[in-house]
Design goal:
The chain is of the alpha+beta class. It contains 8 helices and 8 strands. Helix 4 (68-80) crosses helix 5.
Protein backbone atom coordinates (compact mmCIF):
# COMPACT_ATOMS: atom_id res chain seq x y z
CA UNK A 1 0.00 0.00 0.00
CA UNK A 2 2.84 2.30 0.88
CA UNK A 3 4.36 1.64 -2.55
CA UNK A 4 1.15 2.69 -4.34
CA UNK A 5 0.85 5.84 -2.25
CA UNK A 6 4.38 6.83 -3.19
CA UNK A 7 3.82 6.26 -6.94
CA UNK A 8 0.25 7.57 -7.40
CA UNK A 9 1.48 10.93 -8.80
CA UNK A 10 3.50 9.13 -11.46
CA UNK A 11 0.62 6.79 -12.34
CA UNK A 12 -1.71 9.78 -12.69
CA UNK A 13 0.73 11.56 -15.00
CA UNK A 14 1.00 8.42 -17.14
CA UNK A 15 -2.76 8.15 -17.67
CA UNK A 16 -2.96 11.88 -18.42
CA UNK A 17 -0.34 11.61 -21.17
CA UNK A 18 -2.05 8.49 -22.56
CA UNK A 19 -5.38 10.29 -22.71
CA UNK A 20 -3.81 13.28 -24.52
CA UNK A 21 -2.11 11.00 -27.08
CA UNK A 22 -5.32 9.15 -27.87
CA UNK A 23 -7.27 12.38 -28.25
CA UNK A 24 -4.67 13.78 -30.63
CA UNK A 25 -4.93 10.73 -32.87
CA UNK A 26 -8.70 10.85 -33.03
CA UNK A 27 -10.74 12.10 -35.94
CA UNK A 28 -12.26 14.77 -33.72
CA UNK A 29 -8.85 16.41 -33.25
CA UNK A 30 -8.24 16.51 -37.03
CA UNK A 31 -11.62 18.14 -37.62
CA UNK A 32 -10.87 20.78 -35.00
CA UNK A 33 -7.59 21.91 -36.57
CA UNK A 34 -8.12 25.62 -37.51
CA UNK A 35 -6.93 25.36 -41.11
CA UNK A 36 -9.37 22.59 -41.96
CA UNK A 37 -12.31 24.51 -43.47
CA UNK A 38 -15.68 22.94 -44.19
CA UNK A 39 -17.04 23.62 -47.69
CA UNK A 40 -19.58 26.19 -46.46
CA UNK A 41 -16.99 28.06 -44.41
CA UNK A 42 -14.61 28.18 -47.37
CA UNK A 43 -17.35 29.54 -49.62
CA UNK A 44 -18.15 32.27 -47.08
CA UNK A 45 -14.48 33.19 -46.73
CA UNK A 46 -14.06 33.56 -50.50
CA UNK A 47 -17.16 35.75 -50.79
CA UNK A 48 -15.80 38.04 -48.07
CA UNK A 49 -12.47 38.29 -49.90
CA UNK A 50 -14.29 39.12 -53.13
CA UNK A 51 -16.18 41.92 -51.37
CA UNK A 52 -12.91 43.35 -50.08
CA UNK A 53 -11.36 43.22 -53.55
CA UNK A 54 -14.34 45.05 -55.04
CA UNK A 55 -14.25 47.74 -52.36
CA UNK A 56 -10.53 48.32 -52.63
CA UNK A 57 -10.03 47.90 -56.34
CA UNK A 58 -6.76 48.84 -58.04
CA UNK A 59 -6.73 52.48 -59.15
CA UNK A 60 -5.20 53.39 -62.49
CA UNK A 61 -2.98 56.41 -61.75
CA UNK A 62 -2.41 57.07 -65.45
CA UNK A 63 -5.97 57.32 -66.74
CA UNK A 64 -4.87 59.94 -69.28
CA UNK A 65 -2.38 57.51 -70.83
CA UNK A 66 0.45 60.00 -70.39
CA UNK A 67 3.83 59.28 -71.89
CA UNK A 68 6.85 58.62 -69.68
CA UNK A 69 8.07 62.15 -70.37
CA UNK A 70 4.73 63.69 -69.41
CA UNK A 71 4.65 61.66 -66.21
CA UNK A 72 8.19 62.82 -65.43
CA UNK A 73 7.22 66.46 -65.96
CA UNK A 74 4.09 66.08 -63.82
CA UNK A 75 6.01 64.49 -60.95
CA UNK A 76 9.00 66.83 -61.11
CA UNK A 77 7.06 70.10 -61.17
CA UNK A 78 4.46 69.04 -58.63
CA UNK A 79 7.40 68.52 -56.26
CA UNK A 80 9.23 71.73 -57.19
CA UNK A 81 6.08 73.87 -56.97
CA UNK A 82 4.71 71.96 -53.97
CA UNK A 83 1.31 71.30 -55.52
CA UNK A 84 -0.79 68.23 -56.23
CA UNK A 85 0.20 66.40 -59.44
CA UNK A 86 -3.28 67.01 -60.88
CA UNK A 87 -2.46 70.75 -61.04
CA UNK A 88 0.32 70.12 -63.56
CA UNK A 89 -1.46 69.60 -66.87
CA UNK A 90 0.26 71.81 -69.46
CA UNK A 91 3.09 69.45 -70.40
CA UNK A 92 4.21 71.53 -73.40
CA UNK A 93 4.57 74.58 -71.17
CA UNK A 94 6.61 72.85 -68.47
CA UNK A 95 8.49 70.72 -70.95
CA UNK A 96 9.68 73.87 -72.71
CA UNK A 97 10.74 75.46 -69.42
CA UNK A 98 12.49 72.29 -68.27
CA UNK A 99 15.06 72.40 -71.05
CA UNK A 100 16.14 75.93 -70.13
CA UNK A 101 16.38 75.79 -66.35
CA UNK A 102 19.85 76.69 -65.12
CA UNK A 103 20.86 78.59 -68.26
CA UNK A 104 23.08 81.55 -67.25
CA UNK A 105 21.81 85.10 -67.72
CA UNK A 106 23.18 86.93 -70.72
CA UNK A 107 21.69 90.10 -72.14
CA UNK A 108 19.97 89.78 -75.52
CA UNK A 109 20.89 86.10 -75.74
CA UNK A 110 18.80 82.98 -76.37
CA UNK A 111 20.96 79.87 -76.46
CA UNK A 112 19.92 76.87 -74.39
CA UNK A 113 22.39 76.14 -71.55
CA UNK A 114 24.72 78.90 -72.79
CA UNK A 115 22.96 82.20 -72.18
CA UNK A 116 19.46 83.65 -71.96
CA UNK A 117 17.72 86.99 -71.59
CA UNK A 118 14.33 86.46 -69.88
CA UNK A 119 12.39 88.70 -72.26
CA UNK A 120 13.87 86.79 -75.21
CA UNK A 121 12.90 83.53 -73.51
CA UNK A 122 9.33 84.72 -72.83
CA UNK A 123 8.98 85.78 -76.45
CA UNK A 124 10.13 82.35 -77.68
CA UNK A 125 8.06 80.35 -75.18
CA UNK A 126 4.80 82.17 -75.88
CA UNK A 127 5.38 81.91 -79.60
CA UNK A 128 6.03 78.15 -79.51
CA UNK A 129 3.56 77.09 -76.79
CA UNK A 130 0.72 79.63 -77.00
CA UNK A 131 1.19 80.77 -80.62
CA UNK A 132 1.28 84.42 -79.55
CA UNK A 133 3.93 86.80 -80.87
CA UNK A 134 5.51 89.26 -78.43
CA UNK A 135 8.30 91.80 -78.88
CA UNK A 136 11.64 90.79 -77.37
CA UNK A 137 11.87 93.60 -74.80
CA UNK A 138 10.17 93.74 -71.36
CA UNK A 139 8.57 97.09 -72.18
CA UNK A 140 7.40 95.82 -75.56
CA UNK A 141 5.72 92.77 -73.94
CA UNK A 142 4.19 95.08 -71.29
CA UNK A 143 2.58 97.18 -74.02
CA UNK A 144 1.39 94.22 -76.12
CA UNK A 145 -2.30 94.26 -77.05
CA UNK A 146 -2.40 90.50 -76.55
CA UNK A 147 -2.39 90.78 -72.75
CA UNK A 148 -4.66 92.29 -70.11
CA UNK A 149 -2.72 94.10 -67.36
CA UNK A 150 -3.66 93.97 -63.69
CA UNK A 151 -1.94 94.69 -60.37
CA UNK A 152 -3.58 92.32 -57.86
CA UNK A 153 -1.32 89.53 -56.67
CA UNK A 154 -4.10 87.28 -55.34
CA UNK A 155 -5.45 86.72 -58.86
CA UNK A 156 -2.24 85.32 -60.31
CA UNK A 157 -2.44 81.97 -62.07
CA UNK A 158 -0.21 79.74 -64.17
CA UNK A 159 1.18 81.48 -67.25
CA UNK A 160 0.63 85.07 -66.13
CA UNK A 161 3.43 87.48 -66.98
CA UNK A 162 5.13 89.47 -64.22
CA UNK A 163 6.77 92.83 -64.85
CA UNK A 164 9.59 94.27 -62.75
CA UNK A 165 11.31 97.66 -62.47
CA UNK A 166 14.98 97.92 -61.49
CA UNK A 167 15.70 101.63 -62.00
CA UNK A 168 13.95 104.92 -62.78
CA UNK A 169 15.30 105.01 -66.32
CA UNK A 170 13.54 101.76 -67.27
CA UNK A 171 9.96 101.66 -65.92
CA UNK A 172 9.67 98.05 -67.10
CA UNK A 173 13.08 96.44 -66.78
CA UNK A 174 12.38 92.72 -66.77
CA UNK A 175 9.68 90.08 -67.14
CA UNK A 176 8.98 86.72 -65.53
CA UNK A 177 6.26 84.06 -65.55
CA UNK A 178 4.01 83.02 -62.67
CA UNK A 179 3.74 79.24 -62.18
CA UNK A 180 1.99 77.98 -59.03
CA UNK A 181 2.04 78.46 -55.29
CA UNK A 182 4.01 81.76 -55.40
CA UNK A 183 6.72 80.19 -57.54
CA UNK A 184 7.86 82.13 -60.59
CA UNK A 185 10.20 81.64 -63.51
CA UNK A 186 12.65 84.54 -63.68
CA UNK A 187 16.20 85.40 -64.63
CA UNK A 188 18.67 86.74 -62.06
CA UNK A 189 22.44 86.64 -61.60
CA UNK A 190 21.88 82.95 -60.82
CA UNK A 191 20.41 82.36 -64.25
CA UNK A 192 16.99 81.27 -65.46
CA UNK A 193 15.38 79.39 -62.59
CA UNK A 194 12.32 78.99 -60.41
CA UNK A 195 12.20 81.43 -57.51
CA UNK A 196 9.91 82.38 -54.64
CA UNK A 197 7.83 85.40 -55.61
CA UNK A 198 7.63 86.42 -51.94
CA UNK A 199 11.37 87.08 -51.79
CA UNK A 200 12.11 90.74 -51.08
CA UNK A 201 14.16 90.98 -54.28
CA UNK A 202 11.02 90.48 -56.39
CA UNK A 203 8.48 92.16 -54.13
CA UNK A 204 10.36 95.46 -54.15
CA UNK A 205 10.58 95.45 -57.94
CA UNK A 206 7.15 94.12 -58.90
CA UNK A 207 5.05 96.53 -61.01
CA UNK A 208 2.15 94.61 -62.52
CA UNK A 209 1.03 91.37 -64.10
CA UNK A 210 -0.37 90.51 -67.51
CA UNK A 211 -2.61 87.71 -68.72
CA UNK A 212 -3.27 86.53 -72.24
CA UNK A 213 -6.63 87.79 -73.44
CA UNK A 214 -9.25 85.11 -74.08
CA UNK A 215 -9.13 85.51 -77.84
CA UNK A 216 -5.40 84.74 -77.79
CA UNK A 217 -5.79 81.39 -76.03
Amino acid sequence: MKYLEQHIPFIGLFFLLLSFTLSCSSKKYILDVPYQYAADELKTDLSVQKGIDEKYSIVDDNEQNLSDEELRIKEKYSIILKVMPKEITDYNFYGYIDKWLGTPYQSQKLEEKLGVDCSYFVQALYSDVFKVTFPKTPDGIFRSKSIQLFTGRTFLKEGDLLFFRYDKFNPISDVGIYLHNDRILACTANGLNIYNFNDEYFQLRYVAAGRLKTENK
